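Record format v2
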Amino acid sequence: MSAASYNFAYLDEQSKRMIRRAILKAIAIPGYQVPFASREMPMPYGWGTGGIQVTAAILGPDDVLKVIDQGSDDTTNAVSIRAFFAKVADVKTTTATADATVIQTRHRVPETPLSDRQILVYQVPIPEPLRFLEPRETETRRLHALADYGLMHVKLYEDIAHHGHIATAYAYPVMVAGRYLMDPSPVPKFDNPKIGGCAALQLFGAGREKRIYAIPPYTRVVSLDFADYPFERYRQQGTCALCGADDTFLDEVVTDDKGGRMFICSDSDYCEKRRETASAKERPHD
Amino acid sequence: MTDDAPLLSVRGVTKWYGRRLGCRDVGFDLYPGEVIAIVGESGSGKSTLLRLLTRQADIDAGTVSYRMRDGSLRDLSALTDAERAVLRRTDWGFVHQDASFGLRMSVSAGGNIGERLMSAGARHYGDIRAEAARWLARVEIDQARIDDTPDTFSGGMRQRLQIACSLVTGPRLIFMDEPTGGLDVSVQARILDLLRGLVVDLGLSALIVTHDLGVARLLSHRIMVMKAGEVIESGLTDRVLDDPREPYTQLLVSSILPA
């Protein structure tokens, strides 16, 4: 089937309008999970169907799309989703964070600071931060309505009681604009400080769970903690073996079966840009 | 607030489950520092009444008013859900017969006690933990068990933990539904002793639903006897138990097995 037989960005216009209405409501109530009529997408749940529907609804012909998965532009998921939109929306794609207008992401916030001309779209597996503490959806909705969030602190209390520190390393719960408790999707807690006060609009789509939520630009986002156990960013102690960065989130890569390993930046674009800049300095006449 | 103003004022409370009566025209006043026992056989509407008073179910007729900390008497039906939720987690305590209703069985004892504190805004781990340890000691649970979950606790310990969880925010009113049901006699005696001490020390008001007249005699000042959804007799505990007027009450009192 040729790409021409698809509507622009795969979804029909009515579906896109429905999703845009959910997005507008989500932006109006920062951190609140807005139900939406999630559509079947030509890929399984868990591959980012929520993020893809949000991206499809906001994408325009002039947009430049970047897709990352765990910070990387070249994993199967990222490559497939980028190819999908190149085919069904004929938009330009890029791997450079600074060049993109829409960035769909799974599990990371780019290292390069985002601007107010960009939108970050997160793929969300489970939007409800209280789900594993309170399995009943009716009850979690009531807790959100009453802003009754003691339960989330119980989780953090248990972490400290059992591990001596807050052991939650990803999907670290945040309060958005002083009102709604929100799961920032499974990004490492290293990325939490980048979510608050961010210049870019941040949209979160959960396809299977049929929820959309949002953080408008420059919104106050606070990671939950205790006065005597404050929130701490976490990264592997080490520097990137490729670009030498010592302030980025690192992936541990096993290099052989004799215990050999190295750390490299999880954000592949950021790492590449740093290496390009470094080599340009070393060889100014090349 | 003076002690002659009721803490909880109940008037004409009625509840139907379809055509089946839950309870009819129940009315009483509970004063600060007073303990009232609601007794009666299974199915007499005791637990229904407790659910109605705590607004876990809607009432069909009548009013339940509660004196807030500012001294004003407020109709619970007129409060918002949020206000009622605040009452439930700060000013009221609950001790259920089945501890799994009142406790999170997979959360440590310290976490269970801490939940109400954290809901009320406590954000200092060390303080929360110290308060939890203090309450464990107060209800006579070994402080070394603070990080153990209640599903590793005995039935008696679970009830003690529920009591600690309810009292940690300094409530004024505590609702108990068969607090010693299903426990053996010696454990019952120690828990009743503990409850009696706490009620006196903290000046708590309490409503206790029980079918055990021994529990009622030990803990309560006044007693209400329910049968088929209606209060058939009420009065001072000693008066009702020693000189029952209604035939049904006489039957209840005479049914106690001699120890």
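The longest helix of chain A spans residues 13-28.
The CA atoms of residues 100 and 151 of chain A lie 39 Å apart.
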